[in-house]
């Protein structure tokens, strides 16, 4: 058990707090002891004085013995409005202070007690008190402070030792109680978390809440819920990984089969049979879509994209290359016009190859969306920069994205907006932009068109 553990710190703090409480009790306790000590001296002095008054002829040796027994030098007793020096002896020094114990306030008693503890030099003091059992009107004695201070020191030392023993016993009892009620349950929770970290798929490592402490039980319940959700997610992830591997294998074999089928379909186009000539284009298109789906699935199932090779590149030539490539793909008779407006001096920090793929995918999706309407349309690519980022916008005048496509826009196999699409293009594009430290977002989509925005940070 070290001081950096919860148990060790709790033990030390308990000892300290108990000692502080005992010290707060110590001061008034010593003041009370002093008062009792002085009252006892007054009582003994009164008894000695009454003994002398009862016998006028008292031997000097007996008088000295009475004074020594009372622990005083002189005794003055006031009776019937007259004061009488009943007992006396030579005093070693002049009187330093005078104390009246008749109805003395507690604060004055505590102050005088503390002062006496810190005054090492012996002094001579005078005490005034009320005689007991109506033995007179007032009793006054003169005494030395040496024995008083020694008695107070002995009493205080005993109190401190007792306080230390009580604090240690109390701390040990609290330590045992806290260790059993808090520390051990916490250690059990930690052990459960460590066991779960080693085998999160093992349901036996999920904690079962059984603590009787409300707060710990709530923590165990929350941990159980979290572990259950994580275990379920890991199992689902494992199933998806296995399913992905199986799909990749099936897609690979199916692609090979479809490739042969595509070749046979190409040969069917040369047939003289009118029915074959009519069915061949549809068959070829269907096979082509199936081949594309297999290739996309295989590409998505491969290892993650490599980290981007970031370098300063001019944006204008890259955008122009994307536009020219899409124009060639669309053909000369296309009703879709593609143009770009990029500042001549605009340079960005990015991976040219990956950014080219992202822009090509966005422009191709926009071109296919506009072409599907059968009407003329436009695609615009713009670029801008500010103090924090570069922004590339791809706008089109197409029909906009359907609500279902917007909900799962960047989810593989779910965010496709056109028939036959896989939804992988936007998923891969978003992944590539995240690799740059930026993000790809849908800025807007309605019946007037769609706009995608690529945000790339400048502080990379």
Automatic annotation (TrEMBL):
One MF term in the entry's GO annotations: phosphorelay sensor kinase activity
Secretion signal, residue range per the UniProt entry: none
Keyword Hydrolase attached: no
Main location as per UniProt: membrane
Keywords attached to this entry: Coiled coil, Kinase, Membrane, Phosphoprotein, Transferase, Transmembrane, Transmembrane helix
InterPro entries: HATPase_C_sf (IPR036890), HATPase_dom (IPR003594), His_kinase_dom (IPR005467), HisK_dim/P_dom (IPR003661), HisK_dim/P_sf (IPR036097), Sig_transdc_His_kin-like_C (IPR004358), TCS_sensor_his_kinase (IPR050428)
Occurrences of domain Histidine kinase (ranges): 249-460
Protein name listed in UniProt: histidine kinase
């Amino acid at each position: 058990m070290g001081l950096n553990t919860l148990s060790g710190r709790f033990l030390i703090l308990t000892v300290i707090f108990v000692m502080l409480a005992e010290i707060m009790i110590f001061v008034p306790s010593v003041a009370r002891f002093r008062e009792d000590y002085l009252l006892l001296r007054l009582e003994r002095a009164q008894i000695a004085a009454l003994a002398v008054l009862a016998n006028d002829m008292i031997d000097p040796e007996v008088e000295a013995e009475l004074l020594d027994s009372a622990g005083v030098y002189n005794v003055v007793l006031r009776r019937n409005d007259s004061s009488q020096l009943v007992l006396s002896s030579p005093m070693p020094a002049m009187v330093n202070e005078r104390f009246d114990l008749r109805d003395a306030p507690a604060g004055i008693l505590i102050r005088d007690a503390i002062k006496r503890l810190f005054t090492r030099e012996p002094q001579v003091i005078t005490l005034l008190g009320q005689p007991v059992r109506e033995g007179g009107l007032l009793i006054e004695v003169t005494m030395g402070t040496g024995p008083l201070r020694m008695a107070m020191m002995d009493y205080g030392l005993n109190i401190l030792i007792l306080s230390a023993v009580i604090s240690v016993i109390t701390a040990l009892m609290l330590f045992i109680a806290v260790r059993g009620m808090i520390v051990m349950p916490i250690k059990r929770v930690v052990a459960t978390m460590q066991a779960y970290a080693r085998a999160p798929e093992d349901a036996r490592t999920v904690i079962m809440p059984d603590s009787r402490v409300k707060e710990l039980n709530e923590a165990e319940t929350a941990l159980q819920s979290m572990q259950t959700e994580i275990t379920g997610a890991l199992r689902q992830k494992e199933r998806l990984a296995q399913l992905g591997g199986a799909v990749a294998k099936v897609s690979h074999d199916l692609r090979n089969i479809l490739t042969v089928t595509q070749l046979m379909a190409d040969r069917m186009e040369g047939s003289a049979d009118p029915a074959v000539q009519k069915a061949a284009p549809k068959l070829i298109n269907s096979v082509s879509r199936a081949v594309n789906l297999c290739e996309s699935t295989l590409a998505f199932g491969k290892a993650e994209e490599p980290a981007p090779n970031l370098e300063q590149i001019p944006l204008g030539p890259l955008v122009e290359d994307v536009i020219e490539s899409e124009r060639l793909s669309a053909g000369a008779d296309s009703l879709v016009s593609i143009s770009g407006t990029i500042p001549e001096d605009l340079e960005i920090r990015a991976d040219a190859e990956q950014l080219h793929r992202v822009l090509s995918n966005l422009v191709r999706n926009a071109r296919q969306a506009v072409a599907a309407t059968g009407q003329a349309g436009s695609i615009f690519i713009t670029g801008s920069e500010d103090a924090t980022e570069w922004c590339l916008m791809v706008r089109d005048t197409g029909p906009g994205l359907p609500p279902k496509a917007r909900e799962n826009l960047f989810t593989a196999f779910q965010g496709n907006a056109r028939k036959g699409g896989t939804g992988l293009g936007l998923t891969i594009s978003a992944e590539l932009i995240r690799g740059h430290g930026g993000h790809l977002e849908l800025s807007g989509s309605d019946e007037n068109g769609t706009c995608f925005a690529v945000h790339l940070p400048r502080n990379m």
